[in-house]
């Protein structure tokens, strides 16, 4: 056994050291694998960043109430009466003897995308007085919160980075009234950072949607209280047609809707490019086997086994593809990891997020590269192992 | 034996290598075909330079009062105007049954979008005359198996029908609209605004947007200004733009798709260029001795150059042809399979791009080894091992 290992080591060293002789071809197959990995990671990191942002927005102990079957907030309706009933539910957290709830209305307004100068859909959310308290991790970093009952807006820092039209201090004219941007808030890694917030009552009246709420948020005393609260609501006929779930579950659902497309694109393109790169790797390895046919034959004649020839080729293929994989990951880190971008989210409004290369994605990428290497080494390796020594030497 | 036979014999002397090269070239052209067709479907919707659209200044999802329509239609320079409203429609279940259903004013709509609404006069009249009539893009009707004359219940995820108290409306399919690539009616379902407006519980007398034709593209800016001025400082301010501008900004909402496509296609081709280039160089180097023999036999250097270049062009065009064919096939399979996504059809312009790129790929990968063969002296060719 030791002798086989020695043989494999010897042949592998021979193979790897002779890579520079086929320098251009080897480099080509390394780069082909690297580009495949970069393209795959581009879409996976995009989907991952989008998912992380949407999923990271929800709390376990905040209930969100929407109309059953409404795919997006935009199509949901919750009446003022239902709002009042829900406020009396069990385990609703209180502050200053008032329930911590927020009836909300989302309208879409135009902003201007900085990179293209074109109009884009911005979520403009009317929130109740407790709307800010219901969202942990939100801090006003500039100016102040809007005053209830006034035409004042606070804007998310993420939105400001990607879109113009809502800068701090600016006055905006919507439906014949002036709105003033009085504050900027940060809520790192959440969808809230892509939103504009204003007082719910003012939003309803100025957007001509008197008494219309689309969603309601309810702060419960604990995450464990969610079940009792939903059970209580289900037993009340006046709340029929409403769906109640935790904010976390709500955003998890939105996340899977938004990322499905990008995941599909990632793998369709990734697999196609991997096949192309595999063809390149196979060519390189067949050439490698052919270039060394005389050496392999000599080794076989002096007693090296076919396995040694096989593993030598296999290790060379794996080394090249792993190198390609590492290079691909490096390009991904330098080119786009952590970059901010935006797309149309499931709520039909722009969502600002960052490309996120998680350790899991890096491992996925390396695994894909190694799979390319395995297939790229397999068939040429078999050919190397099966060579007829006498024939090869005679030909040489 | 002519040169072409010799070239293909050379190409197939190592069949495995050649097949592998063709596979990788095919993949690159397949990616090119899919990406370009997608981009084309997104950006090349039929537009008319005289077709404009008036929307709410706040955002296109905000509605406008129906009174705006008459005022826009009477604006000087407007030839004919129509109006549309988003119904939030779906068939049976979301998201699979999602449909872009528009509540429209039939007769004016057929004037504004005349070129994309070439349907039999009998179907058109049936649609005009029956308030509950519906027209659907042919692929939509096919996807759900609707027959002309059939009653189809459509649901809305926004509105409620006052007559039934439910979110369902029944329509009669009276005709289908053929939608060749680029048609502005791709995927749409058209219903009567009047029928919708009389039965809806809220949002009555509001419309989504107003598409119209101007008398000439020269007056576009003047008309847009006149309309937007007319409603300035009102409750419902407007933004009027030409159709192409609106489509462009709508597509840009998804992200910088053009850049992403360029980078992905670029990455695929850089990889393939390197693989094919280095392999071609190797193939010619292996044949050094043969080049010497050919030159000894009296083949001119020009002819040797042409043959190596011809071989790489042949390889490149073979791969391109397979790739484009595979892409076109895949797109037609996807289109037939339905699904909720946008219909993407093969864009013929891809063929032109593929031919140009195949030419460039063949030349770039073939030229270095071809020049080497061209310059090679017979003595050196035989001296080298």
SSE topology sketch:
The complex is a heterodimer of chains A (396) and B (385).
Chain A: H1 2-17, H2 23-55, E1 62-67, H3 80-86, E2 94-95, E3 98-99, E4 101-113, E5 119-127, E6 139-143, E7 152-156, H4 157-162, E8 163-164, E9 171-174, E10 177-186, E11 196-199, H5 200-206, E12 215-219, H6 226-234, E13 242-246, H7 247-291, H8 293-301, H9 306-335, E14 340-344, E15 350-354, H10 359-386, H11 389-395
Parallel strand pairs in A: 5-11, 7-10
Antiparallel strand pairs in A: 1-12, 1-13, 2-3, 4-5, 4-8, 4-12, 6-10, 7-11, 9-10, 14-15
Helix pairs in contact in A: 1-9, 2-7, 2-9, 2-10, 7-9, 7-10, 8-11, 9-10
Chain B: H1 3-11, H2 15-43, E1 51-56, E2 64-65, H3 67-73, E3 78-81, E4 84-86, E5 89-90, E6 101-104, H4 106-112, H5 121-129, E7 133-137, H6 138-144, E8 151-156, E9 168-177, E10 189-192, H7 193-199, E11 206-207, E12 210-214, H8 220-230, E13 238-242, H9 243-252, H10 257-286, H11 288-296, H12 301-336, H13 349-375, H14 378-383
Parallel strand pairs in B: 6-10, 7-9
Antiparallel strand pairs in B: 1-12, 1-13, 2-11, 3-12, 4-6, 5-8, 7-10, 8-9
Helix pairs in contact in B: 1-12, 2-10, 2-12, 10-13, 12-13
Describe this structure in words.
The complex is a heterodimer of chains A (396) and B (385). In chain A, a hairpin with a 5-residue loop joins strand 14 (340-344) and strand 15. With 396 residues, chain A is α+β, with helices and mostly antiparallel strands. The model of chain A has no long low-confidence stretch (mean pLDDT 91). Chain A is built from 11 helices and 15 strands. The relative contact order of chain A is 0.21. Chain A folds into 2 domains: 2-55 and 259-395, no CATH class; 69-240, no CATH class. In chain A, the strands form 3 sheets. In chain A, strands 1, 4, 5, 6, 7, 8, 9, 10, 11, 12 and 13 form an 11-stranded mixed sheet that branches. Chain A has a two-stranded antiparallel ribbon with strand order 2-3. Chain A has a two-stranded antiparallel sheet with strand order 14-15. Chain A has helices spanning 2-17, 23-55, 80-86, 157-162, 200-206, 226-234, 247-291, 293-301, 306-335, 359-386, 389-395, and strands at 62-67, 94-95, 98-99, 101-113, 119-127, 139-143, 152-156, 163-164, 171-174, 177-186, 196-199, 215-219, 242-246, 340-344, 350-354. Chain B is of the alpha+beta class and 385 residues long. Chain B has 2 domains: 3-44 and 255-383, no CATH class; 51-252, no CATH class. Chain B has 14 helices and 13 strands. In chain B, strands 4-6-10-7-9-8-5 form a 7-stranded mixed sheet. In chain B, strands 3-12-1-13 form a 4-stranded antiparallel sheet, with helices on both faces. A two-stranded antiparallel sheet of chain B has the order 2-11. In chain B, helix 2 runs antiparallel to helix 10 (257-286), helix 10 (257-286) packs parallel to helix 13 and helix 12 runs antiparallel to helix 13. Chain B starts with a helix and ends with a helix. The chains are: A alpha+beta (396), B alpha+beta (385). Chains A and B meet through helix 2, strand 4, strand 5, helix 7 and strand 14 of A and helix 2, helix 9 and helix 10 of B.
């Amino acid at each position: 056994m030791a002798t086989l290992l020695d043989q494999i080591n010897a042949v592998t060293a021979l193979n790897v050291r002779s890579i520079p002789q086929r320098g251009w071809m080897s480099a080509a197959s390394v780069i082909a694998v690297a580009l495949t990995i970069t393209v795959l990671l581009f879409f996976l990191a995009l989907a991952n960043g989008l998912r992380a942002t949407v999923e990271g927005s929800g709390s376990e102990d905040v209930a969100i109430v929407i109309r059953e079957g409404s795919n997006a907030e935009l199509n949901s309706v919750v009446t003022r009466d239902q709002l009042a009933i829900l406020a009396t539910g069990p385990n609703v957290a209180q502050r200053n003897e008032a329930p911590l709830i927020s009836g909300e209305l989302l309208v879409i307004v135009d902003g201007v995308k900085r990179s293209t100068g074109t109009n884009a859909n911005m979520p403009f959310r009317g929130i109740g007085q407790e709307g800010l308290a219901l969202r942990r991790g939100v801090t006003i970093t500039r100016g102040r919160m809007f005053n209830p009952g006034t035409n004042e807006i606070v804007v998310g820092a993420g939105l400001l980075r990607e879109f113009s039209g809502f800068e701090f201090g600016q006055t905006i004219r919507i439906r014949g009234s002036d709105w003033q941007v009085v504050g900027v808030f940060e809520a790192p890694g959440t969808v809230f950072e892509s939103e504009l917030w204003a007082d719910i009552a003012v939003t309803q009246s100025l957007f001509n949607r008197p008494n219309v709420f689309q969603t309601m948020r309810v702060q419960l005393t604990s995450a464990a209280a969610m079940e009792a609260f939903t059970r209580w609501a289900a037993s009340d006929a006046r709340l029929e047609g409403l769906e109640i779930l935790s904010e976390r579950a709500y955003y998890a659902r939105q996340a899977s809707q938004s990322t499905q497309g990008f995941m599909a694109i990632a793998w369709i393109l990734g697999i196609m490019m991997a096949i192309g790169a595999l063809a390149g790797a196979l060519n390189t390895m067949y050439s490698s086997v052919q270039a060394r046919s005389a050496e392999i034959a000599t080794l076989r004649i002096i007693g090296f086994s076919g396995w040694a020839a096989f593993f030598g080729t296999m290790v060379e293929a794996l080394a090249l593809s792993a190198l390609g994989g590492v290079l691909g990951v490096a390009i991904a880190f330098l080119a786009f990891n952590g970059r901010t971008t935006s797309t149309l989210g499931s709520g039909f409004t722009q969502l600002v997020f960052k490309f996120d290369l998680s350790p899991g994605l890096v491992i996925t990428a390396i695994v894909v590269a190694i799979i390319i290497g395995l297939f790229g080494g397999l068939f040429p390796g078999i050919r190397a192992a099966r060579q007829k020594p006498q024939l090869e030497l005679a030909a040489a | 034996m002519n040169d072409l036979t010799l070239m293909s014999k050379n190409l197939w002397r190592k069949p495995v290598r050649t097949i592998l090269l063709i596979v990788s070239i095919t993949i690159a052209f397949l990616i090119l075909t899919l990406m370009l067709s997608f981009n084309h479907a997104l950006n090349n919707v039929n537009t008319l330079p005289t077709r404009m659209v008036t929307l709410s200044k706040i955002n296109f999802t905000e509605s406008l009062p129906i009174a705006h329509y008459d005022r826009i239609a009477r604006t000087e320079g407007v030839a004919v105007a129509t109006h549309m409203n988003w119904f939030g429609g779906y068939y049976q279940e979301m998201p699979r049954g999602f449909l872009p259903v528009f509540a429209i004013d039939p007769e004016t709509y057929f004037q504004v979008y005349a070129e994309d609404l070439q349907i039999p006069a009998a179907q058109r009249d049936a649609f005009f005359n029956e308030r509950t009539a519906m027209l659907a893009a042919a692929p939509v009707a096919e996807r759900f198996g609707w027959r002309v004359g059939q009653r189809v219940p459509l649901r809305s995820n926004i509105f409620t029908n006052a007559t039934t108290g439910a979110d369902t409306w029944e329509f009669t399919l009276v005709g289908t609209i053929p939608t060749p690539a680029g048609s502005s009616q791709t995927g749409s379902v058209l219903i009567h605004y009047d029928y919708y407006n009389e039965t809806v519980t809220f949002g009555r007398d509001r419309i989504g947007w107003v598409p119209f034709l101007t008398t000439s593209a020269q007056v576009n800016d003047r008309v847009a200004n006149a309309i937007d001025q007319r409603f300035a400082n009102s409750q419902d301010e407007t933004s009027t733009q030409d159709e192409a501008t609106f489509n462009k900004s709508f597509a840009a909402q998804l992200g910088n798709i053009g850049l992403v496509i360029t980078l992905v296609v670029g990455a695929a081709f850089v990889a393939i260029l390197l693989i094919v280039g280095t392999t071609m160089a190797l193939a010619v180097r292996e044949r050094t001795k043969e080049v010497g023999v050919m030159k000894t036999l009296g083949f001119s250097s020009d002819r040797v150059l042409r043959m190596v270049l011809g071989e790489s062009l042949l390889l490149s065009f073979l791969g391109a042809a397979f790739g484009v064919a595979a892409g076109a096939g895949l797109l037609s399979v996807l289109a037939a399979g339905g699904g909720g996504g946008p219909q993407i059809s093969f864009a013929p312009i891809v063929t032109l791009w593929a031919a140009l790129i195949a030419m460039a790929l063949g030349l770039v990968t073939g030229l270095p080894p071809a020049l080497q063969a061209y310059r090679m002296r017979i003595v050196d060719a035989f001296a080298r091992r």
